[in-house]
Amino acid sequence: MTMQTLKAVESCIQKVDRIKLSTGCAEPLTWERLARAKSAYSTRRVELTAATHLLPGDTLQPCAGDLVLARVEKLGQHTRIEQPSGRRAQLYPGDEIIVCYGNRYAPDQFEAIVPEYLDECCLVAAGGIAAQLLSRHSSMKRPTVIQPLGLLADDAGHRLNLMDWGLPHIPSSLHRPYTLAVAGTAMNAGKTTTAASLIRGLVQTGHRVGAAKVTGTGAGGDRWALLDADAERVLDFTDAGHASTYRVALPHVETILHQLIAHLASEPLDILVLEVADGLFQAETAQLLASPAFARRVDGVVFAAGDALGARPDHAGDRDRRYGHCPPAAAGRA
């Protein structure tokens, strides 16, 4: 889908939303009700004071990044919700929560997609992702069930989306700090631990380090880990307006990469450390690592292997030829 088509679709959606508001289909939303609702990490950049109405309706089609007020129906895997501060608030049936629609890819947890309507769906990530479940790992309980009550909208009837609060676009600089990326074989291969260890070691040798998580699912755990390692500034894809990057087209993932690096490069930093989520079999990760845009902006890749097989030199050689990067180091659980 081209950018012009996306803009046309967005314009049509906004027109429908404004009609709902003007015909009285929208429900006024008080600040007191918003304040009582438990807001998720994925909404951390949003000025919730802009939300003055709810757009309800079974025929309303949500989009990735749309903010939704939902009621907890039945607790499952996620019994807590991670708030913007990092605090994990206990959930109870009947709670109202503010989360974002998004797709999720987590082989050891859930795969889920944005549903077509505001029907009952699931909380598939503690960071606040609402989605329709496709599959779950056998070790996971059934997800927590939520009932969407309506999309958050402003006075003009414009539905609130994370994109509205993304970092401002800035042109890339010809000069940027030396940039290392951490990629890996799969989820839980040790990528975040590797990135945090790199940051900690570089800081202890006198370097000023910035960090970014380029892809993944909206949650604060990895961001807090990189901040705890003493990175001076840490950004992630939610700063670029995405609740998650699963099913995001490569040009948009490249834009996330470009913008996060550009904003970090505007700071007086010596080195940047980037984390690329998931493993090489995940489509967005594979496409990004093989893209010329990634090669232009990354000076070296540290590869985290989840097991000995993933770290084998013959496998690594094939990987280097395929993605065009020769990792200066290997790390991870292996």
Structural account:
It is a single chain. With 334 residues, this protein is an alpha/beta fold. The chain folds into two domains: 26-165, no CATH class; 178-331, 3-Layer(aba) Sandwich (Rossmann fold). Helix content is 28%, strand content 25%. It has a six-stranded parallel sheet, with helices on both faces. The chain has a five-stranded mixed beta barrel with strand order 4-7-11-10-12. A hairpin with a 3-residue loop joins strand 10 (121-125) and strand 11. The longest helix has 20 residues, at 3-22. The two termini are 40 Å apart. The model is unreliable at 1-9 and 18-24 (pLDDT under 50).
Outline of the structure:
With 334 residues, this protein is an alpha/beta fold. The protein is 28% helix and 25% strand.
User: Care to count the β-strands?
Assistant: 18
Backbone CA Rg:
20 Å
Which residues form runs of ≥5 with pLDDT under 50?
A: 1-9, 18-24
Domain count: 2
Average pLDDT for all residues: 88
Number of helices: 9
The CATH architecture of the largest domain can be given as: 3-Layer(aba) Sandwich
Order of helices and strands: HEHEEEEEEEEEEEEHEHEHEHHEHHE
The chain-level structural class is alpha/beta
Q: Which tags fit this structure?
A:
Rossmann fold, alpha/beta, 334 residues, six-stranded parallel β-sheet
Outline the fold blueprint.
Blueprint: H1 3-22, E1 27-28, H2 31-36, E2 38-39, E3 53-55, E4 67-74, E5 80-82, E6 88-90, E7 96-101, E8 104-105, E9 110-113, E10 121-125, E11 129-136, E12 144-153, E13 178-184, H3 191-204, E14 209-213, H4 221-228, E15 233-236, H5 250-265, E16 271-275, H6 283-290, H7 292-297, E17 300-304, H8 308-311, H9 313-323, E18 329-331
